Predict the 3D structure of the following.
Amino acid sequence: MPGRRRPAATVAALAVLTLGLVALLIGPFASLATAFATPAPAAAGPAVVPEAPPPANGPRIELRVGAMTPRVVTSAGPSTLIVTGEVVNTGSETVRQVQIRAQRGDRLRTEGDIRTALAGNAADDAVTPAFADVTDKLAPGQRHPVQLTMPLRGSTGGSLALQRSGVYELLINVNGTPEDGSQIRLAGLRMLLPVLGVPAAAGRAPEATETTGAATPVTVVYPLADQPHRLPTGPGEAVVLGDDTLATSLAQGGRLDGLLGALETAAPAGSPMRDAICLGVDPDLLRTVADMSGGYRVRAADGKETEGKGVNAAAQWLGRVRALAAGRCVVPLPYADADLVALSRAGLDDLARYAVKDGARIAGEILRTPVRTDTSWPADGLLDERSLAGYAAEGGRAVVLSSDAVAVSGRSGRSTTGGTVRVAGAAANGVTGLLADPLVTQAAEGSDRDAGGLFSTELGSGSSGRRGFGALTSGITSTSPAGSGVTLSAQDAIGAVGFRALNASASSAPLLVAPPHRWNTTGADARELLEGIGALVTAGRLTPTRLPEGSDTATSTPSASLVYSLKAGAREVPGTVTARLRTDRNMANDLRTAAEPAPTVGATPAQVFDPVTEGLLRAGSASWRGQPDLATLATKVITDRVLLLRSLVRVLEPPGPYSLGGEEAPLPITLANGLPVEMRVRLALSDTPGLRTEKIGEVRIPPLGRSQLRVNAQLTRSGQFSVEAGLTTASGAPLGVPSRLLLRSTAYGTITLWLTGTAGVLLVILAVRRIVRRLRGGRGGRGEPAGRHAGSQPTPAGGPDEEPEPDQPAPAASRPEPISALAPATTPDPATAPVPTTRVPTTRAPAGPASARPPANPSANPPASPVAAPLGGPARYPSQPDGEPRTPATAHGSPVTRLGSTAAPSGGMPVSPAPPVPPVDQPTRRVAPGRQGPPPAAPARRSRPAGLPPGTPGVPPMPPGPPPNPNANAPNPNGNAPEPPPGAPATPPRRPRPPRTPRR
């Protein structure tokens, strides 16, 4: 027993060891599979709020400035620069010894120096004060407040050391020490700092602003615009937006709310700046906000719709805009800030015309105040010759252009601060160009701005980003807040305006400040810009002036030509987008031309199709410049809308096939119109073999209704076939999706009639042929060639024309030659005449020459006298007085044994007499005049004598059945059928065949 347990214990030990090794091997793989496996659903509980995205690799610190004073240094202002905000560690490493300081570069003397500073390439280390400590340690995700105080005047080691007025580049520098490195710059914000005068400090008197010339006229075109948010809808439908970021922008603290608040604060009624400011409004923004105030819905990317949250904010903002616009200069932007150049190049001049002309009308209707209908402000202040010619053709007299977009006297107007020029060219004759300072525009826009920072990166999403500035990446030593939408985003624009004011001369042109249409700044920074301009007005450096009009152009105004750079062309709306818009435009125009207003119901064509035009302009908006993916997505939205409108006018497909009878039948077709306008359409049926329809004229379908149309159809074939029915406009443009109609025709078509007629004709021909053959057979005898019966007597009834019984066929080679017996000319004696009985089935004698016929009965008596036989046929003999027919000898001259005799033929065995056969009634025929005897009687049917086998010499083969009656051909004068002899089989009576009238 112990010996037997050892193997079991050994096996158990090996199993345990094997399991352990397997566990060691699959352990790492099991943990790896667990890491990639989908976690199981958690139990019900509180929702988990997702944390911030993981920090970037390496050390990274962001400097977020909340405020800076002063923004414009004056002799009467503060003498200390104060910057407040916070630093945030957004990296993955702990940073130690975090420090901050403010430093500056040399004074920027020329416009080129300003552009270099805006690009981030200017030197900023002319004055580098000492760093101030912020914190000893900043862990990942940790933030720490910052307050930097730096004197404006003093030594270079402890202040900015400002000594004279001008514009300087200011840098807020943050340094730190990573865990495995030395101290480096981790964050930096650069900006322009205008110095109009040096304040007093440390016993030093203030220094006044340097005066270099007369005050420069200044005008500000203040933009109120946003990217398109609205989705196309029709009359009576709810307003739908692609996202709800516009509600956030209109609400308190939002971008549009801040821009409006800055204007209300810095340029109130009665202030000097009020006349210098001209509102630049987007008609699409005004219409969207006006419709939002009545309620709207937001459609997400997955198609779900929710109620919008900006109803009250939209109503309040629109009321404030109307109050500010009253009595003020208002310049309308193209509707939805459309890219006029891209539209013009694509041949969409009608859309460009609507954007300018109708856009001005819409802006005036919503603001309830007059607007400058003869003046427009295109995107980026750029136009080419074609787009400008189209604008001039619609009555445009003035256009706000960037100085970079014109060339005066062959030289670029890039350094031109403003003024007016007369645009050269016959097409644009009389159009005045109002030149905006491109330096201020570039400073307000920012050269390294994040285009997707504030606006939604896709329609239907509510994402809005806020990028942190000051955080550095590889190869970048500082960033600019311009165009970022955060604090200090307008600081560069303030510095550029200060530069123009400080360096103006008596020959300087007026200054036209035109920030970008979608100026991404805060309300505080917009107010700082307006207040900075106001400070320059107060200092005598600038003087406010209204925006010139087209009629104000003097004869001395220089002439300029348009300049459209390749860089601007590369940022246009792509050609693939405008090509798709052209197709959508054509389909929408076809629908519009077919629409008519109903007198009492429905809507007007403008109410239905103007939203489509506006949707096309939103897809071609300059907001998508440099963002082709967003332009493509916006185009898909309007394309789907146009296809939907076109599909609402269609032919309803019936639930089953139409059954049509007759060659001409009305085809009922139902037309449906899902548009709130009356539609004039034409019905188009596909070419289908077997169907011809009448010419169908123009049909009118009522608004949101149906129309029953009965089309006269001519059917040329029967069967089931399909017809494709669709609607088109008067110009032939298709409407809706074609419907397939199934037709089931029971009419006889042309081919069917021809076939039927041909079959009838063939039937008649065959019938005539059969009759002719019968007539020919009656003259010449059936079963023999026609040549042998020429001039012969007609065959009597019961003769060769008798058809054989179906159950007793006889081969042609074995049939006996029919033997005809002529009836006597006188009536036979009734006492001696046999009584007629029912005929028995007989066999027809075969046709052919006499030599090929079987021998007749040798016992028959020879005929008394021959009777005329048919040509080439055998001689016929009359019957004997007792009614027994006589048969001639065989072809060889040997007699044939008579039926009923006991004598055997030579060389054969005796034959037993056959039982008597009942005679067959045979009508008496008269002999035609001129003939030797009566017509021949029908030959008796012969059968093989009983007791002889088939093939006996001298006896023809007989078909099976009862033996023939030798007295069958004897006439019956009494007309009564005789009794059948004993032993004869009872056969049913057979109807005698009517006699044939001999042919004379």
Notes: The mean pLDDT is 75. The CA atoms of residues 950 and 957 lie 6 Å apart.
